[in-house]
Each structure stands twice: as C-alpha cells, then as structure tokens.
C-alpha cells in the first residue's frame, strides 16, 4: 500500500485546481487522481471493484482492460472486460504471467510492479499485479494499438491496481464473514416438526433484509398424544442472528415443555418463567394452539401476540378471540386459554406482526385489511398463504414474517 499512501498524501497536499503532482514517477493532475481513486471500491463486492478498475483504466488510458483473478491455485479467464477484448493478449498467456507474478520473489525482493508482454509489434500489453502486501488477488491486463506503455503509465496503473487490491481484500474478508454468518443462520433455522396426518399444515417464513436467512420469527408443530397437534408462532424482539439465537432457545424450551403435554396457557407460563431467569434473553411474543381434529376443537393462549384468524367454509376471514397475556420474559404470567370449534371446512391462520403491521398505520387498520380478504371455498393451504402474502405486500415488509395455516382433515372418526 506504499504507492497508495503516496498517492493519498499527494492529493491531500495539492492546491486547488488541476495542478500536476508528482507521485513516485507519475506526474498527473490532482483532480484526475481524486477521480480515479474515488471510483474504486465503492462496494464490498469483488466483481464490482474489478469492473470499476477496468472502466477507470480503459477510460483514462483509452485502451482495453480486463482482470484475471487468482482463486487459490486457479486463475479465472478474463473478467470485467472494458473495451475491445480482441486487442487483449491470449488469456492463457496472461494467466501464465499471473502465476509467475504470484510466486514469492527470490531473496525476499519485492515483486515486479508490472510485466510487459509482447503481443505483436502493433499490440503491446501490460500485466499489473493486483497485490496488497503479501496478498495476491490476480492481475490487471491492458493492451493497445501502437506505442508501448511508458514507465510513468505503468506506475500509475500499479497505483490503481494496488488500491483496487486493497478493496478486493476487504471484499473477500466480508464475503468470508457473510458465509460464516449464513452458515450460523442456517444452523439456527430448524425445520418445524410434522403434525399428525389428521391435520394439514403449511408454513411460510420471510426474514427481513436481503442477506438474512433467519431472524426472530418462528413457527413450530409438535405431535401430541391422541391425534392432537401443538401449533406455535413466536416473535423474538429484534432481527438477525442475535434474535435468531434467542429464538432457538425459546424453540428448544418449547419442545421440552410440549413433551409434558401441558395445555397452551401453562406452556406459556413455563416459558415466561424460564426466560425471566435469563436477563440476557430478549422478550418474545408467542401464540400457542392445541388442535384436536377428533373433537373438532382448538385451544389457544397468547403472550403479547396478535390473535389468529379463521377462514370459514364460505371463504370469509374472521378474527378468533384469544386472551392475551404479557410477552414472554417479563415474569408476570397471567396467561389464559380459550377454546373454539374448528372443523375440516375451516382454516386456522396464525402469523407474526410483520405480516400485517405497516409503518404509521394503526394495528386495527392492518388487521381489518387481513379480515377483508376472501377466498374460494375449498382453496388449498398453499394458495391461502400465497394470497395473504401477496395481498398484504409481505414480500416488502420491514419486519420478519412468519405465517402458518392449518386445517383439520376429515377422517370419519367423529
């Protein structure tokens, strides 16, 4: 980075206007240096940085330019080509030069800043290493008709390549961290259990943000005795990996409590007690429903969570009243159950607030928008979810969205 440091110092020390500054062996107007430097590394994306570099080189030197990237021992073909690709030297030839430039120099000498290639008398070319310290990321290749590149041009190209290499290094580090975060999120995103065959269930989960894989919203299904199934939707405060870690804790605790076959309000009471004893755990809302298709009933209890809705056999949507207690983690308790009829013509829809809440809108208005949705009689569960997500604009929601649809299946047992 010594060349880039000299470049920055030169720019900072320049007078107003386009006075020429000496940077190493390069005499170039300070305004030009500022423009070239400002156009590199505008994102943490390696291909974008390579494209910015070749565009800057092609525009300033009026010649085609491309990048050959090193990925371990492999060398890619030409990428981020700017200008006429036919003028560039053969990619295999340039790749051999890239390998030679990536080898440690004997005696610890610094690597060459540029390598000239003879590509016919009319097409001189130049390979410049994309290097930052000991890290080698590839080479910048440029060529043109006529006169070969002068030493001052090679030095300026080396400065630009060195600056771009620094940004490429940051981009690769960021990509590595993003992969690690993605792996962690996928590990936290456990699939819900399978319900009994007498209950059809469909689930959709949409994390907030383009890069997120999992957040604080979750759905769960747990088989219970006598053909019953426990359905749960929860929402941990916050987003991203931090919320997902607490979500995994709530989910694990829930599965343990479900094994004891407790009613929904007692499950919430126990979850609240556990969370309250852990001061670092984030609060969460939760809705628990125990569906009994044999008896045609559903028993629910809520902890600071929005109530579910039911889609009737006529396709109309209506809210299902549920007593609401405080969010989990407060230690207050006070959860109560409510039991309603639920038969094979009805669909229970449970969801997190990201499905309906919109910035600046009263929650009653949001819930009313959901209640106005009409469905065709006998519509499938997947169609129910897709319709709800589309009509409520959930694909562009600012919060995580989790939604679960369940419908008892007629078995002739009643």
Q: Can you characterise this structure?
A:
It is a single chain. This protein is an alpha+beta fold and 414 residues long. It is 33% helix and 25% strand. It contains nine helices and 19 strands. The protein has helices spanning 2-12, 30-38, 46-61, 91-102, 151-188, 240-258, 264-276, 363-371, 381-391; strands spanning 20-23, 26-29, 65-71, 74-75, 79-82, 115-117, 125-132, 135-143, 199-206, 217-223, 229-236, 284-292, 297-303, 309-311, 317-319, 324-325, 338-341, 347-351, 401-408. Strands 3, 4, 5, 6, 7 and 8 form a six-stranded antiparallel sheet that branches. Strands 10, 11, 12, 13, 16 and 17 form a six-stranded mixed sheet that branches. Strands 9-19-18-14-15 form a five-stranded antiparallel sheet, with helices on one face. Strand 14 (309-311) and strand 15 (317-319) form a beta hairpin. Helix 6 packs across helix 7. The longest helix has 38 residues, at 151-188.
